[in-house]
Specification:
alpha/beta, 3 domains, 8-stranded mixed β-sheet, 7-stranded mixed β-sheet
Length: about 450
Amino acid sequence: MTEDCRERLIIFTRYPEPGTTKTRMIPKLGAEGAAVLQRRMTEHIVARVVKLIGLRNMSGEIRFEGGNEQLMAAWLGNGFSYCPQGQGDIGFRMGRAMQDAFEQGFETVLIIGSDIPDITTDIMQNALEMLKQVDLVLGPAGDGGYYLIGVHRNTFRHWNPQLFNDISWGTERVLPQTLTIAERLGLNYSLLDTLNDVDRPEDLSVWYQASDLTTPSNCSKSLSIIIPTLNEAKIINQTIARIRHSRRTEIIVVDGGSQDETAEIAESLGAKVLRTSPSKAAQMNAGAAEAGGDVLLFLHADTRLPENFEQCVLAAAAQDGFCAAAFALAIESNRKGLRLIEQVANWRSRLLQMPYGDQALFVSRDLFQEVGGYPDYPIMEDFELIRRLKKKGKIAILPESVQTSPRRWLNLGIFKTWLLNQLIIVAYYLGISPQRLSQWYRRGKDQSNR
């Protein structure tokens, strides 16, 4: 610590390991998607803290759970000191972090969490200025807790650890109980603006709105979503309902001769409906030919896009050198075998730049036309398109996940479906025609269903 460095800001966060972080988000985002959310939210807050450190001569520390100091430094950089949060409830851990900072000679300490994306540099600056006049500053959270606490060393000596004792952590009573104790101790306090945290699926809109601030302001592209369908009346409603109100997106459903009410439902929801032969390649090419968007996104009828899909897609498409991209994969099932399928698919798509068709591939309309669109194959059409696109540039995989139905794995069996898919890919590489592969695929499914 330098002679005039008297302020420390401490961020409480967790290393973003799938399955152990943001667990209440897993039913909505999947284990990997929840970990990605944790990573991005922490990076979002860290960027604002770095700005604050640049404005004031102060120290930054990360108190973490999970991982280790080396992993945290590799993730968030060397501009912070790192220390495990250790044992005990959140009050005990905050008290220990403050005690350590004051023993190191700091005069003022702020602690913030990583799950309030609306914390700004100005809010943190305001808290530090308030502490020149009062003993305690708190930032109320919408769920009844608080997202920021700030104290002086001299004040801390008198009431530690009383302010953190007998608190119902994790409930809406945290802030009222804390203020009652502060008043009993005779502490002068100030409250910041109330902000909402992001802890449950219903809170995701808070994150999407906050992260929208990072979308390029010059992004003027439009998006066309193309959905090939065949007898999807049971699910097409929820697929379209999720995306129909987006500002710069048109929806094109290309029906391959459904015998149910798929087309009628899609039309009633405002989608443009085309009718073609029951060939997925032909359906997607027909939709692309009709599309008016600068970016084309190909969506399976049983796959749901994340709520902020439009922002994600258009921001990615606005980047220099954009070629094509897809989302990470999450499967709507708790089966362990499908968790493994998810992990393998996401590993393959990121390492080899070979996403599955379920992952909502999107590409600029001009490049799609340049590579000839989807080849007229009865199978492997998406695989071949991606191979062609890879010759033009990198295929990016976004951290946000789509949620796809497990039905194609469950109908045939998880292992049998995976094995059949791998055999088809190997045979395709060996030069077996897509027509023959399609026959083999149908035969393999028929035999397994007997």
